[in-house]
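Kindly inspect the following:
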Amino acid sequence: MPNDPTADQRFFQSTTRDFLADTVPISTVRALGDSGTGFDRDWWQRGCELGWTSMLIPESLGGGTVSGYAMTELALVAEELGRAVAPGPFVTTNAVLAGLVPGADRFAETLTAVQSGETVVAWAVYEPNRGFEALSGTVTGTRAEPDGDGYRLTGVKDRVEAGDQADVFLVSAESERGPIQLLVRADAPGVTVTPAWTLDLVRRTAQVSFENVEVAADAVVNVGAEAADSIRTQALTAAVLTATETVGATGPAFDSTLEWLTDRYTFGRPLASYQALKHRMADNKTWLEACKATVAAAAAAWDEDAAGAAETVSIAKSFAGAKATEIAQDCVQLHGGIGVTWEHDLHLYLRRVTLGRTLYGTPEEHRRHITDLLDTAAA
């Protein structure tokens, strides 16, 4: 969602938009909502072929970007996924890649499988009844104890996006050496995956339990200060992409409402002719454009310096999360009774926006993170 995309970036975005329109129209999204999977793995592999999982991977392993700005181009995909309320583990996959890429030489085989879509990965970071601690690089709850050359993992993770479809989890845990991240296969003994209900019909989560799961030494991604830094980078990656997808889903809600107000007549006049409704839509348009600019700035800041983008990313996630939800809710109200029917598509966008508000840090959590950053800077 750059303010001035290049010709290559515009082509990349339009290719993604056309692909989504052809393969996952709203009718397909509704059908997937009634399925037990949420997304089709063959479809996901086709999306991977378009570059959805390549931006953060080094060119030496077959990755690369269109113009050299990885997060900006990932944001273009996220915007289109939101616009189409499309399925797929896009955010969680790229959050995992952000954690694996620093050790690309050690995890080349995994990165190649993830990039092709053959392997589905999920970031297991949330602890039950706790907020998004990853913003500070800390982990409380799930524990990794030394066991020979490796570790033994015990604990529970919830809100694991695409957890019921994942082949591999990147698990953030605590250890005697500080935070630790480990790759754990979904079919490993002691791993139990329980699908969880989410408001979004196709962007689903799961609870994953680890009961004395043996993890080999070569599955340890990082530990200590390195793990804390990696967790923070993953958190910022997930936050930028979720905020952008949220804004992307708000656009069609606004556009359909504007069309409704223009076409719908009452007392012989279109609804759009009433001054009070004009003002509400003008405010919504202003907030929507502000959301777009804010998430674009966050993506650009990440590209410039991922580790130093924390404040800008939290501003974008808190602002877009709060305002996009207000816009979508107002669009429902402006539609009147038809806006709350199952048959109308508006609720699909509201569901995506509402879930995006909460995943990977609520507006309140990101505002608190901003104050923590300011306090640290002032100290």
In short: The beta strands are 121-124, 143-147, 150-161, 168-175, 178-185, 191-196, 205-215, 220-223, 265-266, 269-270. The longest helix spans residues 225-263.
